[in-house]
């Protein structure tokens, strides 16, 4: 018997797996609030940093406080989105090292879906709330022409940005199949490349710009959407590439996962 | 004393055993340094100085901050919190050693390697940039090195206290995260305290965090000299003692309500 993985079934399964995790999560309610609080705090201090810097200077290469705050927050919101709904990617090391992936491989449920629902990062909620607030605050001082086209573009870029982030997380955490170590050091390193996308990419050298535009496309999470929304030339049309980049990176992540799974051998006992 | 030295050596070997993670971890932090470097470079284009910092000084500032932040990294911190969360703290209760001293010994042990590796990276970075301006005269250099060493102890005091919070929660990572963001802002690791509005600056000076980055950096850059430098180091030591005593007091409260499951 083959089971057809219709989108409806996938969504249903996702919901069931997710809500079970949520119940487990709520057992430790103090942890729940600590994670939300810690994420919010990190982001507020990050914003304070920008604010302190901009209290001394008017702009950085023509970019004002709120424009950079927008990029900064976009990185955090996408990070939060990945944690809140797809935290499981960060647990792959554990799944592989302890051989827990065995259980997933025998179930008639897509493996990616099961990996996604291995955990919930409540810190994501803190990131999304504070990041969302910063983005909302940043929109009023900036001149944006709101019409059907910009709204459509904004939604398209938002969906692509979130997809790109999750795909990067998945691809980076596949390192667990190759690096047999106890820590998440490699995926954290990739995650930290997001630091480069918190600011206008023109402040970096060409090599770094290519790195975060093509190799690990964090720039499509923050900088290019911002430039497109604010109508900054010459990057304003780059935002339209977001869905393509998202498709490309999802494909890449799935390919890496597939190669990794072929290497996977259980912890065994 | 001897037993603490061997603990320090053990932790050094432990760090070496996971060298790939250790190095990748460092590279991850180095990425943050590069981003900050480029950001400040863009900020300083067309400016000679900002809040009393020239671009050259800011470069040294970033490198020294990286060094100080590399000491007592997530590695040492998580080894304390994990002991508490997974219950292996029980083994330490059975041994004739003091928990606080043992953790200090282990942290200092890893600090040796962390220090070496970050010196290497900073050395590389210095080759590619203008380099670090270190103090010229021996007295300032001595004060600088001493304040660096003291800053590790201040950081240990704060890390230890926050790690002990894990007796009350299982979210070691959340605690670590919250502590890092507060430390980064108030120690001057994100941006020099001199950039702060005066109310925030004076608040930060009243807290222990400034002893971690602000004190060694301003002494190293020659911004605080003589009596003023000695005063800042004195404040560091007041905090080292206070935090140590606070840690002792908190530990005695914490072990009383410990529950360890199974065996």
TrEMBL record, chain B:
Keywords: Membrane, Transmembrane, Transmembrane helix
Record-given protein name: Antibiotic transporter permease
Segments crossing the lipid bilayer: 20-43, 55-75, 111-132, 152-177, 189-209, 229-247
PANTHER family found in the cross-reference section: SLR1174 PROTEIN, SLR1174 PROTEIN-RELATED
Keyword Transport: no
Pfam families: ABC2_membrane_6 (PF06182)
């Amino acid at each position: 018997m083959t089971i057809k993985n219709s989108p409806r079934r996938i969504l249903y399964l996702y919901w069931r797996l997710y809500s079970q995790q949520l119940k487990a999560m709520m057992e430790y309610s103090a942890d729940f609030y600590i994670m939300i609080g810690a994420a919010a705090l990190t982001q507020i201090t990050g914003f304070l940093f920008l604010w302190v810097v901009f209290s001394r200077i008017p702009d950085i290469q023509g970019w004002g406080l709120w424009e950079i705050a927008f990029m900064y927050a976009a990185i955090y919101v996408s990070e939060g989105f990945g944690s809140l709904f797809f935290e499981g990617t960060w647990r792959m090391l554990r799944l592989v090292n302890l051989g827990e992936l065995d259980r997933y491989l025998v179930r008639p449920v897509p493996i990616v879906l099961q990996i996604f629902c291995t955990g919930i990062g409540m810190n994501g909620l803190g990131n999304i709330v504070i990041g969302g607030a910063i983005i909302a605050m940043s929109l009023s001082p900036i001149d944006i022409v709101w019409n059907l086209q910009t709204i459509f573009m904004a939604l398209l870029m938002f969906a692509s940005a979130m997809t790109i982030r999750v795909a990067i997380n998945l691809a980076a955490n596949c390192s667990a199949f190759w690096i047999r170590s106890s820590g998440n050091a490699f995926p954290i390193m990739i995650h930290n490349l997001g630091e480069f996308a918190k600011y206008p990419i023109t402040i970096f050298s060409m090599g770094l710009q290519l790195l975060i535009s093509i190799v690990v496309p964090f720039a499509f999470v923050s900088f290019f959407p911002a430039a497109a929304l604010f109508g900054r030339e010459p990057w304003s049309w780059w935002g339209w590439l977001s869905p393509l980049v998202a498709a490309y990176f999802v494909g890449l992540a799935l390919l890496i996962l597939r190669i990794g799974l072929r290497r996977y051998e259980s912890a065994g006992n | 004393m001897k037993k603490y030295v061997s603990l320090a050596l053990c932790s050094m070997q432990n760090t070496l055993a996971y060298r790939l993670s250790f190095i990748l971890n460092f590279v991850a932090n180095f990425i943050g340094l590069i981003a900050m470097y480029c950001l400040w470079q863009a900020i300083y284009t067309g400016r000679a100085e900002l809040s009393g910092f020239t671009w050259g000084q800011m470069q040294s500032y970033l490198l020294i901050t990286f060094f100080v932040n590399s000491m007592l990294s997530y590695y040492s911190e998580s080894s304390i919190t994990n002991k508490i969360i997974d219950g292996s703290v029980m083994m330490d209760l059975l041994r004739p050693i003091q928990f606080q001293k043992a953790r200090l010994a282990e942290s200092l042990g890893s600090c040796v390697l962390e220090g070496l590796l970050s010196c290497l990276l900073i050395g590389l970075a210095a080759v590619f940039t203008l380099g670090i301006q270190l103090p010229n005269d021996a007295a300032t250099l001595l004060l600088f090195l001493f304040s660096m060493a003291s800053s590790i102890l201040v950081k240990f005091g704060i890390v230890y206290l926050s790690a002990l919070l894990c007796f009350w929660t299982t979210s070691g990572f959340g605690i670590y995260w919250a502590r890092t963001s507060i430390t980064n802002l108030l120690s001057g690791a994100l941006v020099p305290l001199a950039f702060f509005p005066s109310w925030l600056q004076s608040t930060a000076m009243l807290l222990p965090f400034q002893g971690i980055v602000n004190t060694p950096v301003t002494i190293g850059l020659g911004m605080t000299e003589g009596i003023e430098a000695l005063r800042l180091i004195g404040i560091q030591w007041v905090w080292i003692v206070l935090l140590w005593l606070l840690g002792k007091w908190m530990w005695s409260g914490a072990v009383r309500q410990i529950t360890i499951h199974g065996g």
